[in-house]
Write a structure and sequence with these properties.
- The radius of gyration is 23 Å and the shape is globular.
- α7 packs across α8.
- Strands 14, 15, 16, 17, 18, 19, 20, 21, 22, 23 and 24 form an eleven-stranded antiparallel β-sheet that branches. A six-stranded parallel β-sheet has the order 4-9-8-5-6-7, sandwiched between helices. It has a four-stranded antiparallel β-sheet with strand order 10-13-11-12, with helices on one face.
- With about 575 residues, it is α+β, with helices and mostly antiparallel strands.
- The two termini are about 30 Å apart.
- Helix content is about 35%, strand content about 20%.
Length: about 575
């Protein structure tokens, strides 16, 4: 097979063109591709439920002008006029579920990185499309392409009256790219597009449920809205600015030059944190002052590695000199689910940071260098740390908090709990209230600057930073998730459980299933009470959920269920990340 190349620039640059194998592909997969990754070499794309192709910037520009008569630079303004964020008043709504993985989070790059390094890739594109089927209710439409999505949609059609709208273009990694190509080449002649347009035209109040509002989705939604002839299109996503710029880690931190310009001599470490937070975008532009894990943003989009190297070394020196912190983590600002994080870096070693500079520069992205947090451990289970998250749903601050389950740096599920259960999980009442107060401040900060939050998750760390902070426990904001997020499936499962008279605490866990969704759900006799198989992408990704009266009891049920199904060969043990 001839090879294809992934360019050094992630984000909007592009392209991967597929080379199909000579023989027939495996039935469940569309084919095999050779992909050239800069700095890595040739990587074989195999065993994914979609291809690695994507539209490049010129193609997106041309499609945008052909469909809308405007250039991509004019799209955000048009989106602001023609798309309307949804704030729930409690009434039921008819939905069109259109979840596509987004280039903003570099999902393709993350899957290629896992593949190149011998790890089991998540296949983010497939699981984002497939798990979203569980968001649909009777009469809703779900959009997708892959085999696991078809299976989930078929089951939802049988049980809940959901309608599936299948889109061609399986060679494209992103569903949004397949939709744009289809709109540009066939338009309303395409059965899938005709069905979507008809649904919106007949029900203008239809709510379009989205994973993220990136440029490609905006173009498609504007096309859909105009083709349907409706005054506005209702979505459950944040505005483009919130969903792109603020949905990254960099706005939490000052740049290295801005931080270095501060005079902090004689200040205590908490005072330095506040001073640095004030010059970070979150503080400077939105007035948010809640504690943030110490760190600095480093822009990799420079002509060469020298500037990146100098800033990384300077960032490490600032953390060491100002806070006495000597261990750090390097994270892509736009990464999701813990992907591509390098932990345990020696901040006092310029050579270590210089080696990372090459990686940052090749990615042509903004990264953040943060202090390492020694998370407090939760008694829920060995290896579960105190990393609580709070959420905004349909424009309202959601009750309770969730605790993240992780495998290394990779997100693996969530635990729902309220203040009365906090101490059971090792979280003090003061820490619980501190997180809730910070959530209210964050929501008010966005709302007060015309950036209303429709959906959001904010992740916090509870642990020790060491250095000049000593053994004092810190509660610090660490990551915003301002698009659809994994905890939504926990909260939705809990909602449905409560509607059926079930208990109010719940756990979700990400697994690597062997069987498809129908086969797993057929194993009802060996499942705990108040449990559900939410999603299954065989060989890649799945999610289990269980509820109980307390988070500890829910955790025990989940652990027993996970062990039983692992022993039975229904799911594979998770590799340590």
């Amino acid at each position: 097979m001839s090879a294809v190349e992934v360019p050094e620039h992630s984000g909007a640059e592009s392209p991967v063109q597929p080379v199909q194998p000579a023989g027939p592909p495996e039935p469940e997969f569309p084919g095999t591709w050779d992909v050239v990754v800069p700095g890595v070499g040739e990587v074989t794309w195999k065993g994914f439920y979609e291809g690695p192709s994507r539209l490049d910037t010129d193609e997106i520009d041309g499609i945008c002008r052909a469909l809308l008569g405007i250039g991509p630079e004019e799209v955000p303004a048009a989106t602001g006029r023609e798309l309307r964020p949804y704030v729930s008043d409690g009434s039921p709504v008819r939905s069109l579920v259109l979840h596509s993985a987004t280039p903003m989070l570099n999902s393709l790059e993350a899957d290629l990185d896992d593949t190149a390094n011998g790890r089991v890739a998540d296949d983010v594109a497939t699981y984002v499309e497939t798990r979203a089927v569980s968001l649909a209710g009777p009469g809703d439409l779900v959009v997708g392409r892959t085999r696991p999505w078809r299976e989930a949609a078929r089951l939802a059609a049988a049980t809940d009256g959901v309608e599936a709208v299948e889109v061609p273009g399986i060679e494209y990694y992103y569903l949004s790219h397949a939709l744009l190509r289809l709109a540009a080449t066939e338009g309303e002649r395409a059965p899938a597009l005709a069905r979507l347009i008809d649904a919106v035209r007949k029900r203008p109040e239809t709510l379009v449920r989205l994973y993220a509002v990136d440029l490609e989705i905006q173009i498609f939604l504007l096309y859909l809205k105009r083709a349907a002839g409706v005054p506005a299109l209702l979505t459950d996503a944040n505005s483009h600015e919130v969903g792109s710029y603020w949905n990254t880690k960099a706005p939490l931190h000052p740049s290295v030059p801005d931080a270095a310009a501060l005079s902090v001599a004689g200040l205590a470490p908490h005072e330095i944190m506040r001073a640095e937070a004030a010059v970070a975008p979150l503080g400077r532009r939105l007035g948010v002052t809640c504690p943030v894990v110490p760190g600095y943003a480093v822009d990799g989009r420079t002509p060469d590695t020298a500037t990146v190297r100098d800033e990384l070394v300077a960032a490490g020196r600032l953390l060491a000199e100002r806070y006495g912190i000597v261990r750090g983590c390097l994270k892509p600002s736009g990464g999701g689910a813990g992907a591509r994080i390098v932990a345990g870096l020696d901040l006092t070693d310029p050579e270590t940071l210089s080696r990372q500079a090459e990686r940052v520069w090749r990615a042509q992205e903004t990264f953040v260098l943060e202090a390492h947090v020694d998370y407090l451990e939760s008694p829920l289970a060995p290896g579960v740390f105190l990393s609580p998250s709070g959420h905004v749903r349909d424009g309202h601050l959601a009750p309770g908090l969730t605790l993240q389950l992780t495998n290394g740096t990779s997100w693996q599920g969530n635990v729902y709990f309220e203040e009365e259960h906090a101490r059971q999980l090792g979280l003090s009442t003061a820490a619980y209230r501190s997180v809730r107060d910070a959530l209210a401040e964050l929501r008010d900060g966005f709302d007060g600057h015309g950036l209303s939050l429709v959906t959001a998750g904010f992740d916090f760390a509870v642990g020790r930073l060491g250095g000049r902070f000593g053994d004092e426990t810190q509660v610090v904001l660490q990551d915003p998730n301002l698009s659809s997020h994994g905890a939504e499936y926990l909260r939705l499962f809990r909602d449905r459980t409560l509607e059926r008279g079930g208990p109010g605490c719940a756990v979700t866990q990400v697994v690597n299933p062997v069987l498809d969704l129908a086969a797993l759900r057929a194993h009802g006799e060996d499942r705990p009470p108040w449990s559900e198989v939410i999603s299954s992408i065989p060989g890649r990704w799945g999610m289990l959920a269980v509820a109980a009266d307390t988070p500890l009891e829910a955790g025990v049920r989940m652990a027993a269920w996970h062990d039983a199904w692992t022993e039975a060969g229904l799911i594979r043990p998770a590799p340590r990340r």
